[in-house]
UniProtKB/TrEMBL annotation:
SUPFAM superfamilies: WD40 repeat-like. It comes from the Eukaryota. This is Uncharacterized protein.
Length: 154
């Protein structure tokens, strides 16, 4: 919706994750971003909240899950983490049992499952509801570079 405020999650150089507020539409929103570097630039993003406690090494992917109000991050530290988009509280941490970094992830909205691939060619399917790995399979002998879940094909 044009003019609607939104939050954009971004990675920073200190391995943290921040939420940036974009496009003020009312007095409350304007109060959050009144300290812009350039007050005349409405398209400028301003950091709203920074979370630096998620990963010990660089974040490689951020996956928002708007219908669950969650954000998933994967990192060079061999972890995937799910956190509440509003509070920043970590909901779930998934340590890669293959001791290598995760390389891609995607969300299956219909089944509430998180698909995560790693650099050794494994694909794991995690249930957000039960916080358990439902399945883990070796699919390749090389790194899987990304994962895409197509609705209706899972």
């Amino acid at each position: 919706m044009p003019g609607a405020p939104s939050i954009h999650f971004v990675k920073d150089e200190s391995f943290g994750v921040g939420g940036e507020h974009h496009h003020a539409t009312n007095d409350d929103d304007r109060a959050l971003i009144h300290n812009r570097v350039d007050p005349t630039n409405e398209d400028q993003l301003k950091l709203k909240r920074q979370h630096g406690h998620f990963h010990s090494l660089g974040v490689t992917q951020i996956l928002p899950i708007p219908d669950q109000n969650l954000v998933v991050t994967i990192s060079f530290d061999t972890k995937a983490q799910v956190f509440d988009a509003n509070t920043g509280a970590v909901v779930m941490t998934m340590e890669n049992t293959h001791h290598c970094r995760y390389t891609g992830c995607d969300w299956d909205k219909a089944n509430h499952e998180l698909f995560i691939a790693d650099e050794k060619g494994h694909l794991a399917i995690w249930s957000i509801d039960t916080e358990k790995c439902m399945r883990s399979e070796p699919l390749e002998t090389v790194s899987i570079l990304g994962v895409t879940v197509f609705p209706g094909y899972v």
